[in-house]
């Protein structure tokens, strides 16, 4: 997959792409992540990309010309890429959306800034995506969240393909509690059932704990509680 990032601050993405799973995914050609500076497409010698909003109001608005020209340029590299505007007005990012986006042939992420973007930019946007009901200073951090959530779902990126199966939200529930060695840490013991070797008991325990944790911490995720077998 090709992921192209349209931003005013391309250096922000160096930390994301140079370490851990993201670095390895690029090294093994599972994903290619490229940044494009919107300022490079400004049609003025000062590389100005924003202006005051018509009708008045605080702040500045990202102009349509440099953004649209950047999108058109990048489209030549990835003509089939899905163009996404990171925006608090967009569809909320969740596991289901990340999974859907991971199947796209490519992604082009537009990072808004200032007080927002000129509405005419949206004429060539495929989708707006939000990472939560709060405001950030720009779309760069949300874009990083989206990239991380999508790339780890690509085949061959994680060391074990099973890693995605039982994670929180993969089945609509929060993940069950996890433990590792030592079995006894300062008197706090791992549940005996988990070290019993009985895989059926372990599977049943994990399902119960997953349901209970979801009810306790995210009851909004429980839509059909009567259908869940305790």
Keywords:
two-stranded antiparallel sheet, 230 residues, 9 strands, Trp Operon Repressor, Chain A, Alpha/beta knot, 2 domains, elongated, alpha/beta, single chain, 6 helices, five-stranded parallel beta sheet, 27% helix
Describe this structure as you would to a colleague.
The chain is built from 6 helices and 9 strands. The protein has 230 residues and is of the alpha/beta class. It has 2 domains: 150 residues, 3-Layer(aba) Sandwich (Alpha/beta knot), CATH 3.40.1280; 62 residues, Trp Operon Repressor, Chain A (Orthogonal Bundle). The protein is elongated and about 70 Å long. The mean pLDDT is 91.
How many strand segments?
A: 9
**What would you say the CATH architecture of the largest domain is?**
3-Layer(aba) Sandwich
Radius of gyration: 22 Å
- CATH hierarchy, class of the largest domain: Alpha Beta
CATH topology of the largest domain: Alpha/beta knot
- Topology as H/E string? EHHEEEHEHEEHEEH
Give me the secondary-structure category. Answer: alpha/beta
Counted up, domains total 2
Q: What's the N-to-C terminus distance?
A: 40 Å
The assembly state of the depicted protein chains is single chain
């Amino acid at each position: 997959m090709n992921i192209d990032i349209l931003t005013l601050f391309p250096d922000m993405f160096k930390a994301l792409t140079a370490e851990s799973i993201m670095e390895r995914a690029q090294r093994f050609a599972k994903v290619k992540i490229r940044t494009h500076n919107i300022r490079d497409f400004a049609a003025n010698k000062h590389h100005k990309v924003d202006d005051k909003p018509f009708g008045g109001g605080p702040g500045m608005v990202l102009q349509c010309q440099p953004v649209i020209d950047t999108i058109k340029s990048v489209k030549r590299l990835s003509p089939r890429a899905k163009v996404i505007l990171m925006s608090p007005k967009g569809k909320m990012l969740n596991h289901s959306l990340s999974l859907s986006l991971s199947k796209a042939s490519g992604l082009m992420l537009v990072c808004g800034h200032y007080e927002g973007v000129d509405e005419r930019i949206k004429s060539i946007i495929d989708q707006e995506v939000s990472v939560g009901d709060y405001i950030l200073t720009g779309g760069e951090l949300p874009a990083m969240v989206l990239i991380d959530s999508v790339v780890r779902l690509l085949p061959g990126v994680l060391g074990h393909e099973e890693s995605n199966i039982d994670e929180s939200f993969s089945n609509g529930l929060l993940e069950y509690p996890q433990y590792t060695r030592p079995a006894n840490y300062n008197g706090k013991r791992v549940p005996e059932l988990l070290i019993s070797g009985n895989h059926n008991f372990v599977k049943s325990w994990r399902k119960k704990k997953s349901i209970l944790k979801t009810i306790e911490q995210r009851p909004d995720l429980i839509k059909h509680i009567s259908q869940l077998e305790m």
